[in-house]
Design a protein that fits this description.
globular, 2 domains, alpha+beta, 16% strand, 12 helices, six-stranded antiparallel β-sheet
Length: 454
């Protein structure tokens, strides 16, 4: 049996390779780093996190991404195993030590005898002799491969910008102004209800801060970038500031559930920082992705109360993401209609977020392995988070207006209940997990397909 080739060693590619190997099929995992670097990656490690270190909510019954976490755990996800092993305090969210997370994934991949890691770029379309390929090159697909895919599909790749938040050394934060607290003192995985550092603003200082953001110098767009839209879920902070003076106060700077211990009341607005490494020495500015020039970032962010003398381990940046118009180009098992030997997984397939990308890697890896083994590969039920995501990108979304989407309960089929809010979400989650368990059991019991008649 020929090996399956997985192109891309990010979250989706690493997860796909792991699932394929666990199914008993050999894999060649191609990663171009460190031989060829990208605009956003720092290391050559597998599954490097280049933006936030958060996998978002871990609330299984109240949040769709928390449900997706649990579905992935039950399906034997390497990414979730590594995340759980490297979690850092983050309230009700699951955040990880990014370096430890990458090391854990790479160690598991390197120790798996069915996986061979091949360093170097796959420039252009894979060779014809590779009959079963998973393309998981993510938002930073190499130009040569992206161009080849564009020629093959006849579609110009859609694109949007994804911005990176700055990281601060904890020891440089002024705790005579800042304090530790999670919203409503809610504890999350590995946390104690005081997992975020909060820097408070009164109204005049907040309005001055917004104006500083709005007028700051930013890195200019290149000619080919000018018409590329931002993803709404990851807007640069200065773009949000330009939308109106209260936008940030109702967004990443909302003060709800927080009390300034110096005043005993809720501040007008707040900048929150979330732990970024296991040692607790680094914290990132939550929701503060930015395209500002580095000097401007230092000037503006040091006006935040408590960050006047902040030392930055990393300043913000921005990079271009590319993705397919998947509802038009992919079939129900994520094969490219124009060339079915190619499957697509991760952000390039039109999902948004670390967890969603890894989830698609898990599914596509299973689909590819089933094909290699001559087995049927039934898709997960649409009632699951897996199925809701898969259906969205392979036909549930309108191809004319398709944009990347985080998992959310709006993608799930309705459930007959008069309940609303959290109670309704809990019912959707329980239905999803029951249906997932049945799907996993039937998938393990699926016999090989009968051989075609000669």
């Amino acid at each position: 049996m020929s090996p399956i080739h997985v192109i891309g060693g990010g979250l989706a590619g690493s997860e796909a390779a792991w699932q394929i190997a666990r199914a008993g099929v050999d894999v060649v995992l191609h990663e171009m780093r460190p031989e060829r670097r990208t605009e956003a990656h720092v290391t050559g490690g597998l599954a490097e996190l280049v933006c936030s270190n958060s996998f978002r909510s871990d609330d299984i019954e109240g949040n769709a991404v928390g449900l997706l976490h649990e579905e992935m755990r039950r399906a034997g996800s390497l990414v979730m195993r590594a995340a759980d092993a490297n979690k850092v305090p983050a309230g009700s969210a699951l955040a990880v030590d990014r370096e430890g997370f990458s090391r854990t994934v790479e160690a598991a991949i390197a120790a798996e005898p069915r996986i061979r890691i091949a360093r170097g770029e796959v420039a252009g379309l894979p060779p014809e002799e590779w009959r079963n390929v998973v393309v998981a090159t993510g938002p930073l697909t190499s130009p040569a491969l992206a161009e080849a895919i564009g020629h093959l599909t006849g579609e110009a790749s859609l694109a949007f910008f994804d911005a990176i938040a700055p990281i601060v050394h904890k020891e440089s934060i002024d705790f005579s102004k800042a304090w530790f607290q999670s919203r409503y003192d809610k504890a999350g995985p590995g946390g104690d209800g005081a997992d975020y550092i909060n820097c408070p603003f009164e109204k005049p200082d907040y309005l001055a801060f917004v104006e500083a953001l709005r007028t700051a110098d930013t890195v200019p767009f290149k000619d080919w970038e000018k018409d590329t839209p931002y993803f709404e879920g990851c807007l640069p902070v200065e773009v949000m500031a330009a939308r109106g003076p209260r936008t940030l106060a109702f967004g990443p700077m909302k003060p709800v559930g927080l009390t300034d211990p110096r005043t005993g009341r809720r501040p007008y607005a707040v900048v929150q920082l979330r732990q970024d490494n296991a040692l607790g020495t680094l914290y990132n500015l939550v929701g503060f992705q930015t395209k500002m020039k580095h000097a401007e970032q230092l000037r503006v962010f040091r006006t935040v109360p408590g960050l006047e003398r902040a030392e930055f381990a990393r300043l913000g940046g921005i990079h271009r993401n590319t993705f397919l118009n998947s509802p038009k180009l992919l079939d129900a098992s994520c094969r490219l209609k124009a060339q079915p030997r190619l499957r697509f997984a991760g952000q390039i397939s039109g999902v948004e977020g670390y967890v969603e990308s890894a989830a698609m890697g898990l599914l596509v890896g299973r689909f590819a392995a089933a094909e290699a083994l001559g087995r049927e590969a039934p898709p997960p039920p649409a009632t699951t988070a897996f199925g809701a995501l898969l259906r969205h990108i392979t036909g549930g979304a309108d191809a004319k207006t398709f944009q990347p989407m985080n998992v959310n309960f709006g993608l799930f089929p309705e459930i007959a209940t008069p309940l609303k809010g959290r109670e309704r979400k809990a019912l959707l989650a329980r239905r999803a997990l029951a249906d997932l368990d049945a799907w996993l059991s039937s998938d393990r019991a699926t016999p090989p397909k009968p051989a075609a008649a000669a």
